[in-house]
From TrEMBL:
Keywords: Chloroplast, Plastid. It comes from the Eukaryota. Residues 5-82 form the DUF4346 domain. This is DUF4346 domain-containing protein. The keyword Chloroplast applies. It comes from Membranoptera weeksiae.
Length: 82
């Protein structure tokens, strides 16, 4: 089981926001990544050490959710994280 969980949102300013929470820490300040498209968010995430700590299945799920968020940017629909 991963020690992190992620919250994906699409902001009003048409940006994809990714919040990363640590399950172990007693405080709940997330690590925040944001960008105008999925590739930017994934690039920022790849620069952080957290990417080494998540499982392959969690990474695939995160990629799916980020791609859904990017589709929402172009179709002007509402994003709901699975």
């Amino acid at each position: 089981m991963d020690n992190y969980y992620f919250l994906v949102r699409v902001s009003n300013s048409q940006k994809i926001e990714l919040y990363c929470f640590d399950k172990i820490m007693t405080y709940n300040y997330p690590i925040c990544f944001s960008g105008s498209n999925m590739n930017t968010v994934l690039y920022l995430l790849s620069l952080h050490n957290i990417i080494k700590s998540i499982s392959i299945i969690h990474a695939l799920y995160l990629g799916k959710e980020l791609s859904k968020a990017e589709i929402v940017l172009f179709t002007d629909q509402r994003y709901i994280q699975e």
